[in-house]
Amino acid sequence: MKNPNLHDGIILIPDFSGFTEFVFNTKLFTGEYIVRQLLSILIDENNQYFKISEIEGDAILFYRYDPKPSYEKISKMLRNMKNAFNRKVQELTEALSIPIDLSLKFIVHYGKFSQYNIGSFRKLYGKTIVEAHQMLKNGFAEQPSYILYSNSFLESSRNSTINAGCDHQNLSEVGVIQYFEN
């Protein structure tokens, strides 16, 4: 049986590092306010390029059907998201007079996936979705703030040469981790 909803596309998951400790060490109302502000800034910086499938806790599951994604465009967007996130963390730290020890990591994966509806919800389905979630829980990253580009994304994208000046780590079995400057 062929699935007419099956398409090639990008999965992007921005996720906060340090979230569990943050939740346990921050008052409920304050923590909710901070997380809402930080997730909102990521959504705003997306400029509707990606669609949102789900928001779960501290992570957003973005997707975009795209037969030939652009590494340069995605890389620039993620840097803008990271910079906006950092500015918002600084702004909230000053406004609320509390330390906010959160950083941001991104998973960028590519492959085939489909969608189905349950009531008013649209759910993504496929091996690509599971693989992207598994990449979140990697033991490879040496710093909390990074982008993990999967091999499948790098192979499918145009201009997928990692900037030589960037601190990065090649993981032949997974892809490339590109670290943000500290």
TrEMBL record:
**What protein is this chain from?**
DUF2652 domain-containing protein
Task: Give the organism the record lists.
Answer: Chryseobacterium soldanellicola
Q: What domain of life? A: Bacteria
Q: Which InterPro entries match?
A: Uncharacterised_Rv2561
Q: Could you tell me which Pfam families the record lists for this protein?
A: DUF2652
